[in-house]
Write a structure and sequence with these properties.
The protein is an all-alpha fold. The protein has 15 helices and no strands.
Amino acid sequence: MSLVSREPMTPTAGAVEYAAGPREYFALLKPRVMSLVVFTALAGLLVAPVSVHPVIAFASLLAIAAGAGAAGALNMWWDADIDAIMSRTCNRPVPLGLVQPREALFFGLTLALIAVMSLAVTANLLAAGLLAFTIFFYAVVYTMWLKRSTPQNIVIGGAAGALPPVVGYAAATGSVTLDSLVLFAIIFIWTPPHFWALALVKSGDYARAGVPMMPNVKGAGRTRLEILLYTLALAAIAVAPWPLGVGGRIYAALAIAAGLAMIHFAWRVYRTRQGREANRAAMQLFGFSILYLFLLFAALVVEHGSGLIERYGL
């Protein structure tokens, strides 16, 4: 599969010649996704049982953020054709003609190279290798292959979004351990119910774009069942950092309470099958799932970050 043979996309109707500026290139980075990547990577870095100087930690997180942005730019380059069809993504810079596809491609590749090299110099080769693999997995394995070929695209492709805390942990320790893999597992299992809740509402968009999301291939009923099953597994695995010593009492309390809330919202999605109420239940689960993941990793950041503040007088 050649990266340079991709046919340039014709801008959408009404698009005009436009000189892309910082705002358009920043949008290519998928800043919302990038912020979640940085936050979970920070948690991975902080839970590591070693001391990392704040300057090294900041530089490592900056490199991880650049890597996440590079993956987002490459995703937008490849997916410009289907982004133009879907209402949720049609206002992205490439389908609007604000950034040319080739510009997005080379921007993403250049940023990826800078990110990986920077992390290798700042932290270590293992962390840099994991970051390179994350970018490759998201941009090539998920975006170019899985997304358009299987309803399990989100399940398998979720590995890319689950790797940042492992990268952060490796940047601090130069290793991958059970502690970091548990954080990986939480995000990995969280991804399907999070995205499938949105897919239930946006199934028409995905159908028009030819993306085989679970509701379009297996049906809404099967999707609702899998959302519930994944959520039950998530609520259980999310408590694991507590007995492992990665999370403390704050984390345990939040994991249990938020897990029960996730199950409640997933059960509502499972039971509510038709009409606006069904869409409302799905969007409530989608919205709460974002808060859920934030609360879990915020608890880790608070519990472990307080020690860093004390140590360095920040």
